[in-house]
Write a structure and sequence with these properties.
about 290 residues, alpha/beta, Arc Repressor Mutant, subunit A, D-Maltodextrin-Binding Protein, domain 2, two-stranded antiparallel ribbon, 12 strands, disordered C terminus
Length: about 290
Amino acid sequence: MSGDFDPALLRTFVAVCRHGSLSRAADQAGRAQSALSTQIRRLEEMVGKRLLHRTGRGMSPTTEGELLLSYANRILALGEAAAARLRERAVAGSVRIGLSEDVAVAALPAALGRLRRSCPQLHLEIVVDDGERLASRWQEGSLDIAIGVCAAFVDEPVETWSVNLHWVCGIDDTPAPDLPLDVIVYAEPCSWRRLVFDALTAAGRDFRVSLTSHNVGATIAAVENGLGVAVLTTECVRPDTMRVISIGPDGATPLSAQFGLYASKRLNESGRAAVSLLRESLRGWTAPAWQDR
């Protein structure tokens, strides 16, 4: 049986479990939903078990699916580690990396894990901060690599990608259309805060700020507990405790944010290797919206 576990099938299964939806996993992979559905069926036929079931909030693994998910994550990690050892990347030293909190809970942990496995002798000094403060650290020269919202940076990124944003509320919350909308926003200075206010104004929706925070974890908790509506990335939406809603008329332009990968021109060999590996990892996660600069 183990010889039948195609890594491509396992990656698709892991992605669907992570996103809680075939459509969201397909959007992130830049593939047709039918192609992912076919791969899941092939995997279920191979193991002779139902691996996913639909709920009112998306898709989640069955008991057998939970078991396979645990093994799948380990199989894929071991494959990456083996490939890294065979490439024999003898990269040592130290690299200072700054991450915007918005991406630190999404694609970046997996990308940084691949970097760590590929370059075990490379010491990573990682700082997670909100977009504006991260950009200030970058301007001060205290970071070698930064990944954050482009609107907060002055310099040109080496690569960019677009991230979809969603209006979300608590799973049992139903905002009243005739009352001001309670919104949860990040503290100033914040480009997303302005994006939210502009979108609500354009939709003609009256609103009031119910909570302000620099922390995405606090924002998620506030949404889950019904304190208001917030704008979150796909990876931050928890289908078991949140639901995506529409703001404004049907067909309105969806919100999105542009993220960038910034690399210092003073990078040594270790830093350049880190940038190269991060680019490889993030391209696999965000394709096809990635753009070279």
